[in-house]
Each structure stands twice: as C-alpha cells, then as structure tokens.
Amino acid sequence: MLKIAVCEDEEQHKKILVDLIGRYPFETEYCLTTFEHGFELVEANRAGIKFDIIFLDMRLDNEDGIDVANEIRKTNATVRIIITTSLIEYAIQGYSVNASDFLLKPLPEEKVFQILKKLEHDIRQSKNNFHEIEINNERVFIKCDEILYFESLGRKIKVTTFDSEYEYYYTISALEKELDSLRFVLCHRSYIIHLKNVKSIKTKTAILKNGIMIPISSKRNQKVYDAFTRYMAGLME
Fold it and tell me: What pLDDT, in 10s, does the model give residues 15-51?
C-alpha cells in the first residue's frame, strides 16, 4: 500500500490536491494523510510513519519547506518528495533535498497525474527488486532474489534469505496482498515461498534450492503446483 502525505497550510490548495489524488486511477491501494504544519509531518515521520510520497509546500506558516524536508530525510532517505510552490525559484531549491519533482500553483491536473503515474511505477519497480521491512523504526531493504520464504510466527513474520534471517511485526495475510503473486505464493497458512528459489515441488512439500523443505497444505497443493509451473514457463519464454 502506498502511503501518501500532503503538507499544505492553504486550505484551498490542500483541497484541490487531495481531490486530484482522489481522482487519479491508482493501480495500487493507497492511504492519504494531510498535514497543515510541517512539524506535524516531521513528528509523524519520527513516530515511525514512513511515507512513500510527500507533497510538501515550500512556504508553510512560519516554516521553511526545505528545513522540513531535511528533517524527514534524516530517517527516510527513499521517500519521494514533491515540492509545491507558487514561485519557480522556490522549486529549484527542492533539488537540495533530492526532490523527485515540483508543482507550480495553481495545481494542474495533467501534471499531478503525470507525477503520480511515474512515482507509482517507480515505487512498484523498486519494491519488486527489494522487500522493505521495518525493524525498531528502521527501514531494512532485502533483495527479493535472495528471499527463500516468509514464515508467520504469531504477530511476527520471519523472512529467511540464503544467508540471513529477519523478524518484524506483520501478518501473513497483509504480506500476501503486498507481494508479487507471480513470484511469491502462499503455500501454507504460515508460509509464503519465493518461486525463483524453489528447486522442486512434491506432494505437500516445496524443496528450496538450499535444501530446506517447506510444507504445502492439502488445499493449496494444486495452486502452488500451478504457480510454480507458470513461473518456470515464464522463464523459458
């Protein structure tokens, strides 16, 4: 799910931007949070809410958007920041905080949609290459190709790679919805396997490339076999 923030102290511009984002045909589920003040956005970021996209006004009431962006960058290096401003010279300053783009007010629908399309694509591609997890308010990026399987441990998920293990708070049902269904498959109520790193499928068992055997529940056996067959066929195309 994409986490989007709008930080704008002018109610008119905030309403316009929120409306445009609401009308954009996202291919991914998203949630939108609005802020009137920059310090509120910074506090949310410090509290562990890691946004994927932030629309940030350069001139907030008694606050400098660049200062706000710099604070956010200290703990969130990957967030896409879109500068919104009435003056082009302020937009240029945005590049000092590695802004992804800028919008000049009044906000044009075509430009907003263009930016959202590009960012949604870029973020999806990035997430296809890396799996992002959060451990103790720190983002950890794991190469998807190195993931063997995910295992549900009650309120936690354990992700196992060829040479490491990580545990973080999450649910297997939410994880299944986020992962690429062409590469990952739920084979058991407690396990999701990465098809790239499956050596073979036997009745009720997936044998991974490192020799680990993962159980497949009876009701999912055919689904897992079909997914593995499709994946292997795709490699040969």
Answer: 999 999 999 999 888 999 999 999 999 999 888 888 9
E strand or H helix at 140, and its extent? strand 138-143
How far is CA 183 from each of CA 3, 90, 198, rounded to the nearest angstrom? 23, 43, 11
> CA end-to-end span of the chain, whole Å?
31
What digits encode the pLDDT tens for the residues 74-100?
888 789 999 888 877 665 665 667 778
Sheet of 147-153, strands arranged across: 165-169, 156-161, 147-153, 191-194, 184-188
| Alpha carbons 173 and 195: distance in angstroms, whole number | 18
Question: Who contacts 79 (Cβ-Cβ below 8 Å, separation ≥6)?
Answer: 50, 51, 52, 53, 54, 72, 73
CA 109, CA 136: separation in Å to the nearest integer? 38
- DSSP assignment of 62-130 equals TEEHHHHHHHHHTT-SSPEEEEEESSHHHHHHGGGGT-SEEEESSPPHHHHHHHHHHHHHHHHHHHHHE
Residue found under tokens 């936690």? 156
